[in-house]
Amino acid sequence: MQPRSVSTLDRVMARACGFCPACNIARKKQQGAAFNLVKTVEKHVCPFCRAYERVYGRKAHEPLPPL
Question: What is the pTM of this model?
Answer without folding.
Answer: 0.86
